Amino acid sequence: MLKSTALCPCQSGLYYGECCGQYHQQANAPSAEALMRSRYCAFVLCDIDYIIRTTAPAQQDLLDAKALGEWAQTTQWSGLEIVQNQTALSPKTTPVQHSRVAFNAFFMQQNQRQVHHENSLFVKIDGVWYFVDPTVPLPSNKQPCLCGSGKKFKHCCRGFLT
């Protein structure tokens, strides 16, 4: 566990205790970007329970905790850069809000700095932000959306994943 007085690995410039640490201790992230940063930090700290808990509830049982843990433990993370944060992708009148965060996560592999670029989708369900994982099976277009909006998948989250 990281001391609360250490600088947060998400590179916000804040101390861990006033940044991602509070979210790792059960507080809800106030924005998609804050959730993205806290998930990066969780990978750095190998906090796989947090990674699973902050994935869309309909996807949590589909995640491979062992594989996630092995990947986190064997990856030497070296930095995070938020490239773009698109908030309010969906109308405020809908019960579920969508946001997209583009980022670069830097890591070392064979003594060379590598970059993982991702443009991630986040959904706010009942006041809580979650990550939508595109690597696990998604609903078919005619099935209910995984975010619980009541819409079919093709008329909701699918449009934000393309």
Write structural notes for this entry.
This protein is an alpha+beta fold and 162 residues long. It has one domain (16-161): Nuclear Transport Factor 2, Chain: A, CATH 3.10.450. It has 5 helices and 4 strands, in the order ααααββββα. It has helices at residues 20-24, 32-44, 48-53, 65-74, 158-161; strands at residues 76-86, 97-109, 112-125, 128-132. Strands 1-2-3-4 form a 4-stranded antiparallel beta sheet. The N and C termini lie far apart (37 Å). The mean pLDDT is 91.
Can you give keywords for this protein?
single chain, 162 residues, alpha+beta, Nuclear Transport Factor 2, Chain: A
Could you say which structural class the secondary elements and strand pairing correspond to?
alpha+beta
Biggest pleated-sheet summary: 4 strands, antiparallel
Tell me the distance between the termini.
37 Å
Main sheet: strand order: 1-2-3-4
Please provide the ordered H/E string of secondary-structure elements.
HHHHEEEEH
Return the average pLDDT rounded to an integer: 91
- Per the CATH scheme, the topology name is Nuclear Transport Factor 2, Chain: A
Q: Which architecture per CATH? A: Roll
CATH class: Alpha Beta
Shape: globular
- What share of residues are in beta strands? 25-35%
Number of helices: 5
For the secondary structure, the number of strands is 4
Number of domains: 1
Give the C-alpha Rg. Answer: 16 Å
Low-confidence stretches: none
Indicate the percent of residues in helices.
10-25%
